[in-house]
Amino acid sequence: KIYEDVADLPGLEYDFVIVGGGAAGNVVANRLTENPKFSVLVLEAGVSNEGVMDSIVPFLVGNLFTGPNAYEWNYTTTPQIGLNNRSTPYPRAHILGGCTAHNGMVYTRGSAEDYDRYAAVTGDPGWSWDSLLPYFFKNEKWTQPTDHHDTRGQFNPSVHSTNGINSVSLSGYHWPIFEHHVLQTTRELPEEFPFNLDFNSGQMLGIGWLQSTIGGGKRSTSATSYLAPKFAQRRNLHVLLHAQVSRLVHAQKTKQGAVTFGGVEFLQGISYCESLFTAKATKEIILSAGSVGTPTILMHSGIGDRTALTALGIPSVLDLPSVGQNATDQPFIGARWSVNSTQTADSISQNATRFNEAYKEWNRTHTGPFVEIPVTHLAWLRLDADSPIFENVTDPAAGPNTPHIEISIGTGGVAATGNFISLGMVVLNPTSRERNNCGNVSFIKRIAGGSVTLQSNNPFDPPLIDLGLLKTDFDIFTIREAIKRAYRLVQAPVWRDYIIAPTTDLSNLSTEALDQFIRNGASAGAHLVSTAAMSARDASYGVVNPDLLVKGASGLSIIDASILPFITSAHTQAAAYVVGERGADLVKERWR
Ligand SMILES: Cc1cc2nc3c(=O)[nH]c(=O)nc-3n(C[C@H](O)[C@H](O)[C@H](O)COP(=O)(O)OP(=O)(O)OC[C@H]3O[C@@H](n4cnc5c(N)ncnc54)[C@H](O)[C@@H]3O)c2cc1C
């Protein structure tokens, strides 16, 4: 059951207390309560997702990011050196479903090599691609798009599952001329931009059709899927909203010297009517508060770098210097071209009559342009093997079949008039964090680029979020290269009579001028990971062991995107879901 008021809960003691009802947290809640003997409480700081149209209707997603709002934690990054000292808004969801309720819905798993590297660095083959594929399948419910078009040749059914819980589909609305041009590019420039039938097969390189977490024309989130009424009505599943966890309390040592916590402290209520409560987990506390929330709670509980915590007046209970370190996100920059076609998403966003018609159509039948975001394809590309950057930098990708660059290819711009196409360039494996090499596997050591740290010992102060964006030569080289690739893509002959001009011509800029354009315009992909990274059981760094239990603690685990040792070469929700699915099995296994 989902509760808005702590007074309605049946009690404050459960087998498992899960902090955070986001991508991974709701998966764990669902899977643990498959066992009727387990009682579970989810504490979610955010608001209900019920009836939030900007979250439900795919085309409206952009509205969730316009200024401070109730569905957001409303964070801002620290000044980013690589962005000419700009601070940027840093979106994190404050709503049931977590970031799955306000993200771009892009469904990308990453490369098989990404996961094989997780297995290699943790020494646990259970984190390899082959071992995790059944968990991707448990998550994914492949769904027909709402326009019921013929999807043959647009995906590979053998790498998808129709038996999971979370809807994934191809686009249910089309921009035929634009889509034709993208596909024709793969025929005209097949060496550089080959067609890939399905980039979710583990082999990502090339251009493929977008897949999204959308079902029946509506966004599918971890709340609408894993907490759907048939699951939420389980008598052993309790979800409390407006419950912001401040810290873990009543720390004690077991006979073996591990730290345990007797309770989870949280503030519950709405605005002026809030109080502090403590919930107890008799079996395990599971942190699923995401890559910002989880390290923040750990540090306020005394788990983190001893020196840093002591300086803030927080008593140290477990010295784990990797907490909050290694924060990794993907630098992003967009470019637009005006085009000689009225068949772009601008025809809806700029025209109130068409916009209202499209909304009406969505309301009537869940069809039409509102069932999608206007991105149709994604390109996954590698830097040239002989790129000068590799003279000094070890390739940070997980392997030779893993892309360095993503280009999202979409219709529509942001201007008040005109027709545009938009390409979004992403550095998939940023190096703005240090690694040391051990054999042919890059290991995390600690500290360099990004971090989540505390500004005070008040758990209700926002943390300091430093993404370390574009700090290294590799990252700036790669984003420059990504822009060049985008320009080459639209130079395929098929675009000749279609493209009028770039909105800002980046093709003839000096390297210095291009770098300034990038540093003044880039932002983060909002795919933060690694702030509570998993490492091998005997490693002297890292936060959790491969079984997701916190090192040096007992009865405390972390199950969310923060445990990923490296970022996937992709958007991160599929990885977060799969961490939730395998994490739930690991918990079940130890409490069998
Ligand atoms: C703007 C944006 C766009 C994105 N677009 C995409 C995309 O298109 N495709 C994709 O694959 N990925 C995307 N992502 C990333 C993806 O959504 C995340 O990687 C994924 O949701 C992370 O899952 P998680 O379980 O780690 O955390 P989250 O899903 O963030 O869930 C964490 C939950 O914990 C709650 N919480 C935090 N602190 C506390 C606390 N102290 N007490 C109680 N509750 C707390 C939060 O409110 C939240 O509900 C996007 C992310 C953002 C922010």
Automatic annotation (TrEMBL):
The active site is at H527 (proton donor), H571 (proton acceptor). This is Aryl-alcohol oxidase. Keywords: FAD, Flavoprotein, Signal. FAD binds at N103, G104, M105, V106, V245. Gene3D superfamilies: FAD/NAD(P)-binding domain, Glucose Oxidase, domain 3. Its cofactor is FAD. The keyword Signal applies. Residues 290-304 form the Glucose-methanol-choline oxidoreductase N-terminal domain. The lineage of its organism: Eukaryota, Fungi, Dikarya, Basidiomycota, Agaricomycotina. It comes from Mycena albidolilacea. InterPro entries: FAD/NAD-bd_sf, GMC_OxRdtase, GMC_OxRdtase_N, GMC_OxRtase_C.
